[in-house]
Amino acid sequence: MALDSHIEKVLWTAGEISDRVAELAAEITSDLSPNSPAPVLVGVATGAFVFLADLVRQIKLPISVDFIRADSYGAGTESTGAPRLSLDLKLDVTGKHVILVEDIVDSGSTVASLIGHLEKKGASSVSVCAFLDKPARRKVEFRVVGSGNYYRGFEVWGFAFFALF
């Protein structure tokens, strides 16, 4: 049995994904000043780690990287709406620009919760960079902080669940 035999339809080719990640990295590089303190890219574990790795390789600025984990799905595919922080940052983000890197922004609960957490930890601004955005499923609107931006890889409509490899 082939590894990809369960895939019904390819939504984006590897080349399209690579091109979009390069575009996002170029946007981030362009939006941030090389004279500013290095931004901290925070990957939301564990789903965002491959996207984060691809992204950081293409950002043309000094950066720091850390991870955070918030559990909002439990064992299912539906958000509980009440994210619980299960792994916090090791780096101090006080006075720094943070880019929260997510695999999928769905209900918005996790992102909103994490933005609030980063703000309480003293981040001067918070951006969000999502590989996939599912705005039709949004239940909680979130806002970036300070000079933050929302970077969106691909917008998804009408799909309930993804497995990203």
UniProtKB/TrEMBL annotation:
Gene Ontology MF: a single term: hypoxanthine phosphoribosyltransferase activity
Phosphoribosyltransferase domain location: 16-141
GO cellular component: cytosol
InterPro entries (UniProt xref): HGPRT, PRTase-like, PRTase_dom
Coiled-coil ranges from the UniProt annotation: none
Top-level division of the source organism's lineage: Eukaryota
Any Gene Ontology biological process: GMP salvage
Pfam family, one: Pribosyltran
Protein name in the entry: Phosphoribosyltransferase domain-containing protein
Species, as recorded: Linum tenue
